[in-house]
Amino acid sequence: MGRVFSTRWVLYALLAGGTAPGLRPGAATASGLPSAAERHWTADNGNGTYSNPLFYEEFEDPDVIRVGDDYYLAGTTMHMNPSVQLMRSKDLVNWELAGYCMDRLDLGPAFRLEGGNIYGRGIWAPCIRHHQGMFYVFSNVNGAGLQVFRSKSIDGPWERNQLPGRHDLSVLFDDDGKVYLISGNRSPYPIEELTPDLRSFVPGVRYELDAPMGEGHHLYKINGRYVDVSAIPGATTDQMVAIADSIRGPWKVARMVQGESLGVTIAAPARARSDDRGLTLHQGGIVDTPSGEWWSIIMSDHGSAGRMVSLVPVTWNVGFPLIGLPGNLRKAPNTWIKPDTSFVQEPRPAFIHDDNFDGGRLNPHWQWNHAPDDARWSLRERPGMLRLHSLPADDFYSARNSLCQRPPGPESIMTVELDTVGMAAGDTAGLALLSSPYAWIGVVKTDDRASVQRYTSSGMERGFGRRNATPRAAIPPVLSPVVPPARLWLRVHCSFDTDEAVFSWSADGREFTPLGDPFTMTFQLTTFQGVRPALFHYNTSGKAGGWADFDSYTVEEPRARGVEREIPVGKTVTLTSGADGRLLAADVLSGMLVNLTVAASDPTPERARFEVVDLGLGRVALRTADGRLVSASGESVLLKEVAGGPPGEAESFQWINLMRGDTMLLSLSNHRYLTIRPGEPGAVTLAATGPQPARRGGACFKWKPVD
Asked: Does residue 514 have a cis bond before it (omega within 30 degrees)?
């Protein structure tokens, strides 16, 4: 995968902006990308590369398979309805929603918010498999049992049966017709056998994987050997892999990924300290392409936005599938060449959340908070609008028929129009962020008036844990002094760099007035999810009330295609260390790349100026003012004269943009990064294996164009 000018990469470079089998037509912008890919997060960079996260919004516990030339992905949906999210792709980068396994996760009153709740429970860690023309999805429901879904098509319909519960399981259809299931979160891990019809366990059959692994299992048989991938529990942890020649063992274990955060911090990025350990890649499956490449779709936490997935290459080393590239195993690039799937298409976002409620059906990316009461909501009573009839509830947390989505990062602005003419006394309707604590802005109706209020809950009682938690004492709401019109607009602006959300409202849809202090968003274990924007309506009088009509729900993503995607090809730039502000520079006498301090008031020296030479596929060469190229020699970085012909592998670097304007340069010679020793002048090396989470380790740079 390290060669620069192979036929495959040239093909990608030629097709990235043109037409080819598999490309879909679409209006392109000046960047050459379809307009939807400009406005919404899209992993595909449009130049034959992709950047993580795969989706810049929560997608938990990924499990991926290939069936022929198609790829399928399943993810956790917890207490949300519909349940078990299924995605499909032709290239592992551009995905679309295939559907859900279950329209209603309704296994008892608590699943309907009647006398209890299932926050943080419900559907967990699905395993998706395909065997003899049938798709299978296995997923545990805490306290209810293991759900087994089957369908001849990923589009459904899905048949379901239930087995005794198993924690974080994975299933293998073996070559000899036997079906094995591994589960558990501590060693030894039981390996049981299922009957061929998957409706019971085979009595008396139990093997064990007795080795230090984790949870979130992914069990495979690859080239005749059994492979189990699992994650050490936690948010700053690693992933393990075990190999055996027999399902009975013995098993050999290796660390599959180690300390790879892709620059994601534990604290909100704007508040991260230099010693931040990062939120690491730690749970996901592996899959091959028809060309023989191996890849992993793997999860990591992302603060209040929730857990997200990344696509990372896998290298087989001494019999083990390890995340990373040769020369830099157990680490992963944030930007890399798209998988060789023999399918090339234009970039497209996986999720577009806007909904004008026309057409008689909801945008399929909506999910209800718990199983809804379908008699109390409608898209037909007032065509073109979502009508929510209020049901009795003590508060938003216990209100049925709250309609939720995931907020895109790193920044998103959710706006909705609300018509309150049908609201009755005791009704509260509006736009919320479902979490613990939660917050909302909305209209509260009493017998004699309506008011716009911003409310923040105080979270859930610790004594109840995350299971069936109950609200703490209420915090007084913030009231707007302005009497609202019957029709108004509500908005929440979420920044996941600061983990803050600003609620505002408008009487005309143009001028918005903030209400209350910024809300501090968190990832917590009550809902076990990131925050969820929600449209809601409930009545606190103990009985059903009136109705509220919602229209024109929009989601703006101001940074879907910001500086994080720009490569200054053809420009002359300076590269400044984010760790200490030193400049990269050419040392003419030693013939090496060094770092030096330049006062802000001084002009930029010629030796600190580099022309960014475009090599295609997001790869560049750096040309100094005297015409030499930056070149790798082991872990040393030299200046080299290249007489004619294109730059070689030693002079080629993958330009990698992290979020918030940080850039890294990955050498194609050893798959390590240009780095300095912060605070120390001297030679630049290729010793860094990845970014320090707070971006202050010497491998992250800020670029700036110069005249």
From this structure: no
